[in-house]
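Subject: for your reference before the review

Hello V.,

The reviewers asked for a structural picture of the protein, and I figured it would be easier to keep everything in one thread rather than splitting it across files. Below is the amino acid sequence we used in the manuscript, unchanged from the supplementary table.
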Amino acid sequence: MAGPDAPEAGWKAFTENVVGGGRLELDPAGIEQCIKLCQAHAEDMRILADRARDELRATALGIGENDIDSAKELARKFDEKATGGGDVIAFSNTAVGLFLAHQAYAKDMRSMFEAVLVRYREQDATLAADLGSTGAGL
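And here is what came back from the structure prediction:
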């Protein structure tokens, strides 16, 4: 999706605001919620991949695949498109591959949010210690 409503448009505006001297605020509770949502999304995608692997099998479509070679070939292609396998369809272009790619993306986002939260807390502790030591000298 392209244009002003695309998800990447929001990230671009956010990045330009921060880099361009804008103000960056961070809510640790909001980041923790994002971590939980990413984990839940990753788990949902794993479940969908498992379901796709089990439920989207197209080995018996009832179109004569037991007797007609072209019907057998069509059933095989549908099966490969849903679950992978074969040389023609890349795994990333299958239902299972798509769900697993979304799972990996959600896990990557969760890791990024976790790293941001750790760095925020480290920086917050450092700043608090510096302010405390400066205040003690007054």
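For the response letter, the relevant points are probably these. The two ends are 57 Å apart (CA to CA). The CA atoms of residues 17 and 23 lie 7 Å apart.

Happy to draft the paragraph if you're swamped.

O.
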